[in-house]
Amino acid sequence: MNNACLDDALVAKAKGGDKAAFKLLYQRHQGRVYAICLRLSGSADHADEICQDCFVRLWQKLNQFNGDSQFTTWLYKLCVHQAINSMKAKQSFWHRFLPESSLSEHHQSLSENHQTQNGHQEYHRLDKLIMQLPQRTRVVFVLCAIEGYQHDEVAQILDIAVGTSKAQYHRAKQMLQEMLV
Asked: For a designed S-S bond to 38, which of 27, 47, 79, 176 qualifies (C-beta 3.0 to 4.6 A apart)?
């Protein structure tokens, strides 16, 4: 049985309330969902939260999956939307308490503390560099270059102009090229 057929069988069982089938779906896709969340959020702690939220959301919305696309396509789209919404909510929360300059310092120190605590984990060099990109630039780059979204889709997801998406993507490529030198 190929992966898509196995997913379809597990989805059908999970839709019927089979928690063991849902657990298998989780086990099969958790790594990829976490990777998307990590690349989008730039923080392992936040990625953990988003990943959990994605699977809670998946359980809630599973009956809406109608099979028009592959399950993985639908799941990863759900994941991207959950990550973007979570990042917006987190940013909105901190904006109530901290001035803009403190936010970037706070995010940087959290990121540095996490990297120190988890120094034993090795990430690929490019992933490390992607994490150093400014948030909006990173999100656009991940959505376009890694997840395969078109600029019009990115613009719609992030509620920005298509030109802004293209500019942020170009900026990300330039910054990554400079970092690689």
From this structure: 47
Torsion of CA 6, 9, 13, 19, to 10 degrees: 10
pTM: 0.68
Q: What is the extent of the structural domain holding 111?
A: 1-120
- Percent of the chain surpassing pLDDT 90: 46
Q: What is the pLDDT of residue 41?
A: 87
User: 134 and 107, same structural domain?
Assistant: no
Place of tokens 């706070």: 106
CATH code at position 55: 1.10.1740.10
Domain count, the chain: 2
CA angle 153, 159, 160 (to 5 degrees): 85
Render pLDDT for 91-121 as a digit per residue (tens, 0 to 9).
Answer: 654 444 444 444 444 445 445 544 444 433 3
Element (H, E) at 1: none
Q: Note the pLDDT of residue 87.
A: 81
